[in-house]
Specification:
GO terms for molecular function: hydrolase activity. By secondary structure, this protein is of the alpha+beta class. Helix content is 21%, strand content 36%. The protein folds into 2 domains: 46 residues, no CATH class; 142 residues, Nucleoside Triphosphate Pyrophosphohydrolase (Alpha-Beta Complex). It has 4 helices and 11 strands.
Length: 204
């Protein structure tokens, strides 16, 4: 028997919070059997249903910021306390896109809020894509944005629930962080590998 194309038949809400919701998706697998899958999403159920039915264009949920400090040529990292692992983890500056906010505005806002640094220029304006980070669990999509920044690091703009240390590192320091047994996000790991070999050339 020829395999079918899997498809979602229905979505129901399991739990809703301000920034994240859980949904139960009833879908037909390739053998024609009805199955259930739990999806975590930033979207409300109406938007999610429209996107599943291809009646609404998918919107990028968040920006991940690869920033080089213009004067020092150092890569900007953050080390942030994350509740799910009850520990600090190395990451790249990042944040959710607010409503219909333009990507460049989200980058400027989140970079300044998390690090105190100022956006100068986005390098990959014409090549920003919607990418997925963990599609076995969530439909969340991100945009990787390469940019230059300037200014001084400060923590004046952090929200009460944000506990963030800012680190500006050179290529040698990137190699040392990779050698150590630090907890880190997969995206920052991949960027540290690239930066440790290429330095500022990652912007090309």
């Amino acid at each position: 028997m020829k395999n079918l194309r899997p498809k979602i038949n229905n979505i129901e809400t399991l739990a809703e919070t301000k920034y994240l919701s859980l949904y139960d998706a009833k879908y037909t697998n390739k053998k024609g059997n009805i199955r259930s899958w739990t999806i975590a999403s930033r979207k409300n159920i109406e938007t999610l249903r429209l996107q599943i039915q291809k009646e609404k264009e998918e919107k990028v949920d968040a920006v991940i910021i690869i920033a080089i400090h213009k004067e020092s040529k150092k890569l900007v990292l953050i080390r942030q306390f994350r509740v799910p692992i009850n520990d600090y983890v190395y990451e790249l500056p990042a944040g959710l896109i607010d409503g219909e906010e333009e990507i460049n505005n989200a980058v400027r806002r989140e970079l300044h809020e998390e690090t105190g640094l100022n956006l100068i220029d986005i390098i990959n304006k014409e090549d920003i894509k919607s990418l997925y980070v963990s599609v076995g669990m969530t439909d969340e999509s991100i945009a990787l944005v390469y940019c230059y920044c300037d200014g001084e690091v400060c923590s004046d703009y952090l929200e009460d629930d944000e506990d963030i240390e800012v680190h500006m590192i050179d290529q040698f320091e990137a190699k040392e962080i990779l050698k150590a047994n630090h907890k880190m996000d997969i995206k920052v790991y991949m960027m540290l590998k690239a930066f440790s070999m290429l330095g500022e050339d990652i912007m090309r």
